[in-house]
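Ticket 4471: requesting a sanity check on a complex prediction with N,N-dimethyl-L-histidine. Repro inputs:
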Amino acid sequence: MPRPQSNPAARGAATPQFGAAVEAARAELAAGLNHHPARISPKYFYDEIGSKLFESICLLDEYYLTRAEAAIFLENAGAIARAAGQGATLIDLGAGNCAKAASLFPVLNPKQYVPVDISAEFLRGAVAKLQSAHPGIPMLPVGLDFAESLKLPAQVQAQNRLFFYPGSSLGNFTPLQAAQFLTRIRGACGPDGAILIGIDLVKDAAILEAAYDDALGVTAAFNLNALRHANEFLNSDFYLRDWRHVALFNTVHNRIEMHLEARRALTVTWPGGARSFAAGERIHTENSYKYTRRGFAELLESCGFGDITCWTDTAQSFLVCHARAI
Ligand code: AVI
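Returned structure tokens:
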């Protein structure tokens, strides 16, 4: 399952260590490679190199998502403030370096800021800096794999919760997983909570495919890095030059699919396993679902949200929605 819960660019590097977590990762990788078609979870993009590559992706001309979302926040600050109100408990899912939420502090004036990410360790540094810049906002960093559970500590205020989930990270879930996740957020909202969420919109396939297959080859390197990372965990012998990055828009499912395609017939081996690939055979590494404006509002409604206000950028490429728990 994808783990879009963290701000991947800022997530602490996952390096193989000892213990049950590594054994679980090895088992997951081996099972994925033995699957037909083969697959590797997108979480293996994000080691130290992969996180830096994702940061670079966000700067690329072709990857419009980050800029479009930032423009929406900037151009609609007043309307967002009116919809969300002041003094919320701002719960930032996948906060990473907390930069996106911090840019909204002047707009939202949160009463409490709760950055949530898989690594509490990583959050602490970002929060320490942020806290000295905003001494009046109590901050409570929470280390939590929130794709698994949204059980927040008791110190998180129950009233006026605003869940913040930007960056189209929801798009890395299947629609079913997305609905389950949104329903869980709805449950954690309490009676007067809300969500502020960013999602990428369906558009011309050429624009989407360029966003996931840039001219500089940064996304190709990001994708191939999953093999390098898999080698570290699994002790496998993926030779990266044997693989080619493929990004295509699947119009049936409205999703960008990323794959790695074998350039020749080859066999990958690891302790206790092996998988042969024909030339042209692929490993599926990521889905990034795109929504229509109406489809996304319907999804929010089906998960217990209402009173939905959405904003888009001038090119109508990206959507930010505020929706209340009803
Ligand atoms: C993290 N996530 C929202 C990105 C996306 O657009 O699906 C991951 C990504 N994959 C390739 N480029 C960016």
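Notes from triage: DSSP finds ten helices and 13 strands in the chain. Leaving this open until the requester confirms.
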